Amino acid sequence: MKKTTYAAGILEAYEYLLSNHKEFFIIGQGLWSPWYVGATMTDLDKKFGKERVIDCPISELATTGATVGAAICGYRPMIVHPRVDFMLLAVDQIVTQAAKWRHMFGGNSSAPATFRAIINRGGEQGAQHSQSLHSWFAHIPGLKVVMPYTAKDARDLMISSVLSDDPVIFIDDRWLYEKEEEYTEVEIIDLNNVKPQKLREGDDVTVVGLSYTSLLCENACQSIELSHNIKSDLFDIRVLNPLKIDDILKSVKKTGRLLVVDGDWASCGMASEIITSVLEKIDISVLKNSPKRITLPNSPAPTSKVLEQQYYIKTSDIIDALIQITI
Amino acid sequence: MNQEVSELIDPIKFRNSINIDGIDKSILIDMLRKMILIRKAEEKLSENVESGKIKCPCHLGIGQEAIGVAVSMVMRKTDRAFGAHRSHSHFLALNENTYSLFAEVLGKHDGCSHGMGGSMHIIDNENGFKGSVPIVGATIPIATGAGLAAKMDKTGDIAISYFGDGSCEEGVLHESLNMASIMTLPVLYVCENNLFASHLHIDLRQPSNSTSRFAQAHQISYATVDGNDVVGMYKLLNSEVLEIRKNKPFYLEAYTYRWKGHVGHRDDIDVGVKRGDQLTAWKERDPIKRLFSAMEKNGFYTKEEFQKLLIQVQEKIDNDWNRAESASYPKEDFLLTPVYSSPT
Q1: What is the CATH number of the domain that holds A206?
Q2: Nearest to B341 among A59, A106, A166 (CB)
Q3: Residues of chain A contacting residue B339, judged by C-beta atoms under 8 Å apart
Q4: How far is Cα A260 from Cα A270, in angstroms, rounded to an integer?
Q5: Residue A265 belongs to what domain range?
Q6: CATH of the domain at A91
Q7: What ipTM does the predicted assembly reach?
Q8: Hey, what's the torsion of the CAs at B145, B147, B151, B152, to 10 degrees?
Q9: Residue A144 phi/psi, 5° resolution?
Q10: B77 touches chain A (CB under 8 A)
């Protein structure tokens, strides 16, 4: 059985796009360096040329704006921000320009750029090298927000994001780069048709994760099924905006319980959005317990490893919550 | 062609008729008609901001018509220009489509952005005007990316970035010029230096009133010129554009003055900084008057012909305005239709 990894999936997506779509190019800091983006872009510049894999000045705003401009002019470009934190220098171009470009010109133009941002946290990197902030971007009409969990999704949804006629934020997490799974062939999927993916089937509780927290949830759900015979319906969100809630809603009607695990802060976050989207469409008498969310503590990321241990969500936190909610 | 900045900002200078030697009569008439059309269109907008029929913020560029017209005369339809909050002239110089602009400003479905943009979000893809937005400096990197796309297309097309002296206080100008220089992008940067950003004079905002120092810092060729001399700018750009099409960025700083305030129909002669005396003086450096006076002297155009042209343009504008007033608004479901490429 041929294996692949999340990082290899991303690299394969690039190879596919560069080979099959001449209107695709990539720009970003560190693209000619072996260490900025892990193993996700190794040697692309050597294979496909430095004109299409462009390393660039330290100008997040201008390079992101240039990506938007090239998208407006018929290209399908991607800007790579090796850390989410630095992408914030370019928020005007993402939120106020690209996301609104189609609407404010009455559909007469569009900016189908892909903004790839990498979550690169842990290892005592501290407050400014640890953010995710996906819910910020999921707040914005006109933007699509994609966060893959599996290696297959990392590859296929990156291709879908680039080929989408809308601007897309694609956020991948370095904690998933080594994750192994069975290799499958490239599947071309219309991003409009992507909905949450069911990872486990069970009647006791509905569990929702996204990106790295889907991995934690898989581990927790597997463990608690063995130890407590609690069976989970587990979903990986994949596309945060526009959010497709129907399958999760159906599941909560079946299980009567909902736990959402989101590796970001609670306030106005994705976990709240998912819970609210379910609650406002459900007869609450079907609920056997209050919905619950697990998020990061309300603080910036610490540096000290002891505090980091406390800060990030662990599988055991999810197991504890599952026990509580299913009592 | 670098004229002395101290003279360019002095409204006593550059008042006489401009030099039109060597330019075909038909080109001159084109320029004259376009400038009058823009002037009259903006006067119509001004009246209707005052009357209350126009609600959206309208940033008028009366007095600045020559710059967009000169640039439009060297553009191909496949070039790509991006504007800012004060871009009616850039748009009209390329298409003379006053109906499309008026309908847009009134929020009508026939407008260039189907009534979704208003005065600040105008577009005409077919004629190379790829969009304007009011976030100061925002289209500078976008135009730079359009230049990158043009370079990749290898067709010799160029991008044009229109912005004002206020934009030069945004960091993104520096980032974009650096990028265009190091990546050798075919971009024409056009700074319309009208000496004001909103209510504040450039002397209160920058240590120098010449923004071409930023081009110099990034090793980009530049020119500082009289922005109210349509022929002078046309001649300069006509030769420079050949270099730009070979992937060499260029920075044009065109000194001018806006006759109206930052936004709306008023003159704003006393908004924080008094500008009454300057305004009266600057009206003597009228780009339309100076071109006509040169054409009259050369025997290309008579007063009678000029009057006739004014009447013709005014008729078109009145007619287009009336049509725009009676045009339909977007349907209610259009609120959601253009958010994404397809329904979600």
Answers
A1: 3.40.50.920
A2: A166
A3: 102-103, 141-142
A4: 9
A5: 197-326
A6: 3.40.50.970
A7: 0.96
A8: 30
A9: -110, 145
A10: no
